[in-house]
Amino acid sequence: MSAQLTVHPGVLSLGPNVRTDTKLDTGFVSSIRERGVLEPIVCYPGEDGLVIQFGQRRCLAALQAGRDTVPVFVVTAPNDVDRVTDQIIENDQRADLSTTERVKGWEQLAAFGLSAAAIAKRTGAKKTYVATGLRIAASELAAKAGERWEFLTLDQVSAIAEFETDPDAVKAIVASAKSGRFDHTLQRLRDNRAEADAQAVVRAQLTDAGVVVIERDEVVWPMVRLDNHDIDYADHAVCPGHAAYVGYAWNDGSQLPAPVYVCRDGVAHGHVDAAAGGPAGEGRKPMSEQEKAERKVTIERNREWRSATIVRRDWLRTFVARKAAPAGAEQFVATCLLRTDHTVRQALEAGWPLLRELVGHTPTAGDMYSVGRQQLDELVEQVATASAKRATLLTAAALLCAWEAKTDTHTWRQRSEQTRRYLTQMQSWGYALSEIETHACADDGED
User: Fold this and answer.
1) Is the pTM of this model over 0.90?
2) What CATH number was assigned to the domain covering residues 2-179?
């Protein structure tokens, strides 16, 4: 059934719609006042008259503009699934739906029994976006945040849902969404959470084993670390001074929480000579408040740098996948080659391992004579068939990867012109520097 009518806009019912904000700007109302509604409003018969399926904004603008009539196209009443799907598509093709409106639309479709994949297929949205939206819909806090702060993207509202039980984290996410450092903030929050969870596991294991758990700052002579004095912690378990704190150990290149065993009085329990003193970390007096504060800053900045490294390498992975180099790439490449920085020579001799990793090859730990050599040959073949723009991009990416491969927590402490040139080049191509990276780029004497 279909028919076209001309009716007064006041007789039309708005009915259910995924759009909750009609956003009637002055220009839109003025155009309706001057020219009227040019595209018919789509309606279907309801219990009390015609119900709008498409055209809420046109109807409301006509009422505000004082128009006596609007064109209406009457169609058969749709089922709920088709109505919501069509409204999402129709609104996306006009003024963009807000994050909250789109999420609410997906939530309605899910309530009708559609899976994320089915919703994505019907609306043209990516399945991952729909899945993210449905997670947001399950969080009351995230849904309200999306309504309150319309500038939040889908990923940013999803991050709020992820940390909804942590008010400070939510505040940090919203603030970073405004400042442009959202990726860094989210990664830092995730790393903090992972570290806290891992520390809690170690503490629980120690407690379950009957080991007294202390804090790292309590290790002051004559309290001693067992590993500093070649004492086996299993043999020491019967000592009255047996204890441990949660420290760190390296595992596959990552620093993870691990127990560090100590004797609370190595002298009294006969493990060390009273006159011997202790090695680093076993001072004869507690650290001053200033020393504790400085140590805390160093630890925190190290953590910030490790989190920023994850974000930076994710950005580089996306950069490497681009089809063309950004503006200024040719000058950047020429400058790097003419400077012959040591880091570039190292990457050249090693066969550009980080670049190979970022284009999808399995890391080879620097083995250039077998798998690494084969990977490099494959990369050379890609360059041979690539466009000139893609080849330039890969050259610039290789140079960025050369510096990135040599960054570590020492980078922010030992600021250099090379680091500054590397990071600011990435920044000029769209990478948002974190606070610790900005610190690393500062001139000597700045903080």
Assistant:
1) no
2) 3.90.1530.10
